[in-house]
Amino acid sequence: MDLRRLAGWPLLGLLMVGPGLALAAGKCERLIATGSPDAPPYLWQDPQDPKHLIGAGADLLTQVAAQLGIKIELLYAGKRAQALDEVRSGRMDLLTDAPLTTTGLEALDYVHPPLLENDYLVWTRKDSTLVINRPEDLHGHTGALSEKSRMTAGFGVFAEQQLSLTRTPNLTQAFQKLLLGEVEYVLAGRYSGLAMAQTLGMANDLQAAPQPVDKPGLFLAVSHNSACNDPWLRGQLAQKMTELSASGLAEAVLQRNLERWNTQLQSPVGAPKQ
Questions:
Q1: N or C: more exposed end of the chain, with fewer CB within 10 A?
Q2: Residues 222 and 108 sit within 8 Å (Cβ to Cβ)
């Protein structure tokens, strides 16, 4: 038996209670979660405690776990690919910021609705005359996109077929190309773009169109190999995600963590390569 599971009640007690209570009695008392370590304000490595992750995703998941009576720890597991491997193997239970993909479904149980939305906006220089009201307006213009971006499958097909996009290793280089005039726009998340603009000192030089061109969700995803993966946990998480989506709390938490990230920039902490 996994050491994180509660010992449970005596067999006689389990037979006397309803099925819901019997199921809850065997729940995990502790979950280990991870995610991208370089994606502020969603998640990033805690500069004061590098073994842990902080950010909007961590705050929301910690709150949800407390409501369920479960202890949760957000641990740094390495870069994105390493974090995914840790969860797929079951060594860690939960991925906090999983994009919905067909390959992901082979190893993960996604909890709906998503923990956070990640609106992708069109970023341009402040002096740009480019007018974008819909994705089709980008046709014929040169743009850039970080290879680490995780768009929806539908928009990915559209971008591949219809847009002239340069893929860069990270968002830093995409924004630098924009300021140098090598591209006309960059596709980047609303909050990740703001965080990177602050990091690079470009906040006064860039602007973002208000209308998202893509809205990929960032999901909680439980490993198929986690000893804690059971119907009770998935059901409770789904209920809490539904309540969270209706509450409007996520945007306030994102704003707070954007300010938190900006405050950390005042200290000599390395900028993330998104």
A1: N
A2: yes
Cβ atoms of 42 and 55 closer than 8 Å: yes
Count of Cβ atoms closer than 10 Å to residue 5 Cβ: 16
Closest of 28, 70, 36, 85 to residue 56, by C-alpha: 36
Instruction: Write down the pTM of the prediction.
Output: 0.86
Superfamily of domain 11-117+217-264: Periplasmic binding protein-like II (3.40.190.10)
Q: Are strands 164-168 and 120-125 parallel, antiparallel or unpaired?
A: unpaired
Residue 43 Cα distances to 141, 171, 247, angstroms? 32, 16, 21
User: What does the alpha-carbon distance between residue 184 and residue 233 come to, in Å, rounded to a whole number?
Assistant: 46
Rg (alpha carbons) of the chain, rounded to whole number: 20
Instruction: Judge whether residue 3 has pLDDT over 70.
Output: no
Structural class in CATH, domain 120-208: alpha beta
Structure confidence by residue, pLDDT tens digits, 175-210:
999 999 999 999 999 999 999 999 999 999 999 999
Span 249-272, pLDDT tens digits? 999 999 999 999 999 998 755 545
* Cβ(196)–Cβ(188) below 8 Å: yes
Above 70 in pLDDT, residue 33? yes
Show the CA angle centred on residue 137, arms to residues 132 and 143, nearest 5°. 85
Q: At what angle do helices 249-264 and 56-67 cross, to 10 degrees?
A: 130
Listed residue (50, 218, 249) closest to 149, CA to CA: 218
